[in-house]
Design goal:
This protein is an alpha/beta fold. The protein is built from eleven helices and twelve strands. Strands 3-2-1-4-7 form a five-stranded mixed sheet, sandwiched between helices. It has a five-stranded mixed sheet with strand order 10-9-8-11-12, with helices on both faces. The protein binds zinc ion.
Length: 335
């Protein structure tokens, strides 16, 4: 597309309004602007300090968003809604992080209100695993699935459940706390304060911690790169995490019988090195059932899943999009 044509497309695409998606995770910030059809017109990502503070980061997003709107020649009043993904369990009633110790700089803060005060646009907030599941359902590996599960394995572990084609939230909105299911009684201390949580045994931080004596200064990305290059120790560490995740996934699968389990998040970049052991344990654990075991596949949206989910959530909450005026139609109109 020539630049003149592109500028014309961008102008037409956001004539019907734009939405913003933001994903705050433990170590990373992602921000994107998209039109009604979820076509991303501007996107940024940057690292965050381990115990970053919410007020600083919300202010930073405010400035970044102003720049991004300027880049696509959009006015602030063209921004209709903002979706925010938080990589921590969320309490639906209070809009606050529901478990201490996971994102310390965000505890006790009604996140939607705080973001709304700075951005001055309606804001909706959800847990990043729920939003990754939503995005994979709309755009990726969960398309057409009715009863399914999305497992996110990054520094921590989370899950989004899909029942009857809709995200399942539970009574308090905190369903899917897969990472904090106990798989080893009196096991290692989890950052949530509990003992023996899956996350404390098979999450990215736990994998890195377990390799610390052998390799100092290693990050999760390095473990994946080394494993993919054939390093036996790193391959085994990922496989053991996969086997533990498989035990927990088989237990969840026994309860709600998903047809498909999608594995995403940072560690999913290890591909079959992670998925193989998960599948093996799930298949073995469910072998006595007459029903087939759930399919275990990789996510299609990679590290952007929660961000795309935040954008999807924002489009769901912006009633201002005129019916039919999506960028697809506009693209056709442009020829
Ligand atoms: Zn825990």
């Amino acid at each position: 597309m020539r630049s003149g044509r592109r500028a014309q497309y961008v102008t037409l695409a956001h004539a019907s309004g734009l939405v913003c998606g933001i994903h705050f995770s433990q170590r990373q910030l992602r921000v994107a602007l998209a039109d009604a059809s979820l076509t991303v017109v501007s996107e940024h990502e940057m690292p965050l300090a381990r115990d970053h503070r919410s007020d600083n980061e919300i202010r930073r997003v405010g400035m970044l968003l102003a720049d991004m709107l300027e880049t696509v020649s959009a006015d602030r009043d063209e921004l209709l809604a903002v979706g925010v993904a938080i990589s921590a369990p969320m309490d639906a009633a209070s809009g606050m992080v529901a478990r201490p110790g996971i994102m310390r700089g965000w505890e006790g803060i009604p996140i939607g209100e705080a973001v709304e005060r700075t951005l001055r646009v309606p804001v909706v907030v959800d847990n990043s695993s729920n939003l990754s599941a939503l995005a994979e359902h709309r755009l990726g590996a969960l398309r057409g699935q009715s009863d399914a599960m999305f497992i996110e394995v990054s520094d921590g572990i989370g899950a989004g459940l899909m029942v009857g084609g809709r995200g399942y939230r539970g009574a308090s909105g905190s369903a899917g706390e897969f990472g904090h299911t106990v798989i080893v009684e009196n096991g290692p201390l989890c950052r949530c304060g509990n003992l023996g949580c899956l996350e404390a045994i098979a999450g990215g931080d736990a994998i890195v911690e377990g390799l610390k004596t052998r390799y100092s200064g290693l990050k999760l990305g390095d473990v994946i790169v080394r494993a993919m290059a054939g390093d036996d120790v790193c391959i085994r560490a990922i496989a053991e995490a996969g086997a533990h995740i498989g035990v927990a996934a088989a237990n969840v699968a026994s309860i709600f019988d998903p047809a498909r389990i999608v594995v995403g998040g940072h560690l999913a970049r290890a591909g079959e090195l992670l998925l193989g052991p998960v599948r093996q344990v799930v298949d073995r654990s469910l072998a006595s059932r007459l029903a087939p075991a759930p399919e275990i596949v990789a996510g299609q949206l990679g590290a952007r899943a929660a961000l795309m989910g935040a954008l999807s959530l924002a489009t769901d909450h912006s009633s201002a999009f005129p019916a039919g005026a999506t960028s697809v139609d506009l693209r056709v109109a442009l020829g």
